[in-house]
Amino acid sequence: MQIQLIKVHGSGNTFFLLDTSKLPQALSEAEIIQLTQKITDHQTGLLGGADGVLLVSDSKKAGASGRMRVINADGSEASMCGNGLRTVARYLTQKLHEDHFKVETMYQNLQVQKAADLASGVAAFRVEISPVSFAATDLKMHFGTKTQVINEVLPELSDTLKFTAVAVPNPHLISFVDEATLKGPELERIASYLNGANPYFPEGVNVSFVLLRGKDSIFVRTYERGVGFTNACGTAMSASSLLTALLYPDFAAFEDTLKVYNPGGMVKTIPHHRDQRYWIDLIGNATFQDRITLDLADALAGDYSQAQINPTHEQADYLKFVDTIQNIS
Ligand SMILES: N[C@@H](CCC[C@H](N)C(=O)O)C(=O)O
């Protein structure tokens, strides 16, 4: 069976997008996991691998125009992916000829829409990041009897860093740090521990360090559950923006737009707080790099020699955009 993939990225967070509604025969869950692990491998995978696979299909839920499933590079399934959702929004916009609709994700139908291009040739989309919860039960987090962790030292992890745990709805553990800590080894030490066998987050957690750069400007570095370090994590940048508005009101306000820099570029976010509900709008690039056709059996075997690969040439415009932003190296 031939499959068609699109290599996509949001802020350099890379995925293979597969529209499963086009397949003559459904993939089994075991095939999905094997396909993901094979093609995303950064050493032996397709086109240098990726951070995960985005499965797009029709939705059976009322009010949703399509469905997105997110498979991390290790084959685990995530409840949400902000950068991925922007690329799925672009794909469905072109497929359905709609520019404002909802996409079904694991826990919620989320609003997506086309946004103004970030720069010449850099298509952008705006997606809703929701629902938000600080509850330990939603985070599957266990620190003694704590029902939430908001801006506090967790001696189990570090004697000095303060952490906040928030689900959007995938789980995030976030610490605001100085530039030396942002670039230092602590993030990898803590995140790799929490994403191995451990009593605090037995199902793993996305861990981010955030640097306050100035008014409405932050930098976020993330070690993702099921992946490792990525260039950017959309839900982490959204959660970090929400926490900036909550914990550092001199740096961000609800309803204002923040610039969120990351190792792969920059996105914009708008944290919202209305009627006791939090949510975030995430606005950023949705870049299509390559269109690929290959045989499923070959892909499952890790053989890409017969793959037909058609580059889109969008990446050159994205890299020009990255050159214009004042990022941290
Ligand atoms: N990169 C994504 C998040 C992907 C899921 C994450 N690794 C998890 O397991 O929760 C994003 O852009 O949000």
Topology readout:
Blueprint: E1 2-10, E2 13-19, H1 29-40, E3 52-57, E4 66-72, E5 77-78, H2 82-96, E6 100-104, E7 109-119, E8 122-129, H3 136-139, E9 152-153, E10 162-167, E11 171-176, H4 179-183, H5 186-194, E12 206-214, E13 217-224, E14 228-230, H6 234-247, E15 258-262, E16 265-274, E17 277-285, E18 287-295, H7 296-301, E19 308-311, H8 314-324
Parallel strand pairs: 2-3, 4-6, 11-12, 13-15
Antiparallel strand pairs: 1-2, 1-18, 3-4, 4-5, 6-7, 7-8, 8-17, 9-10, 10-11, 12-13, 13-14, 15-16, 16-17, 18-19
Bound molecules: the ligand N[C@@H](CCC[C@H](N)C(=O)O)C(=O)O.
The ligand N[C@@H](CCC[C@H](N)C(=O)O)C(=O)O binds near residues 81, 82, 206 and 230.
Family: Belongs to the diaminopimelate epimerase family.
Pfam family, one: DAP_epimerase
InterPro entries: DAP_epimerase_AS (IPR018510), DAP_epimerase_DapF (IPR001653)
Question: What does it look like?
Answer:
The chain folds into 2 domains: about 1-125 and about 285-325, Diaminopimelate Epimerase, Chain A, domain 1 (Roll), CATH 3.10.310; about 135-285, Diaminopimelate Epimerase, Chain A, domain 1 (Roll), CATH 3.10.310. It contains 8 helices and 19 strands. The chain has helices at about 30-40, 80-95, 135-140, 180-185, 185-195, 235-245, 295-300, 315-325, and strands at about 1-10, 15-20, 50-55, 65-70, 75-80, 100-105, 110-120, 120-130, 150-155, 160-165, 170-175, 205-215, 215-225, 230, 260, 265-275, 275-285, 285-295, 310. The chain is globular and about 55 Å long. Ligand LBFN2T5F binds next to β4, α2 and α6.
